[in-house]
Amino acid sequence: MTALEEALDARRYYVGVVDGTFDQDTRHAVVAFQKVTGLPRTGRATPDVVSQLDAAQPPAPLVPEGGPGRVEIDLARQVLFLYEGNTLSRILPVSTGSGKRFCDGGRCRRAVTPTGKFAVYNRISGWRKSDLGRLFNPLYFNQGIAIHGFRSVPPEPASHGCVRIPMAAARWFPERVPNGTPVYVLHGNAE
Fold this sequence. Notes:
The chain is α+β, with helices and mostly antiparallel strands.
């Protein structure tokens, strides 16, 4: 198990502590790798995952000229790429807007994570209770839409529009993403 964690960590997938334990952080890293490579999103380190991991190259940037420090969110693959010093630093699994209809405060709309170029403009440390649920360490980048920790980060879109990241990652992510950091939300390399 240590070799799996080391291989994922070397390829920038966040595994938490490399300790030889297949914990929630390792599972999230496997899911992120499966998302990037187009494998079934099971969270299991099956032989096909291990063989592809051995040959894996870092994914190409979505926005090559996006700036030295930036966040790229790929809606198609449901992953987040953190760049620091113009180098890919971490890859996280995400769950974005489900596309389903919901109503809140007498207003109904679709759960969509909008595409475009944004920037982190506000943050709250710890838990924040919103009308749509609880957010951990939210970093707001588009009106009420934030990148935030959430207890459930399924392999598919499931949020009201925010970008959910695993709780463990949400503990360190805000320290590495200051206000003003560009956030690119795209449907893969197509845009």
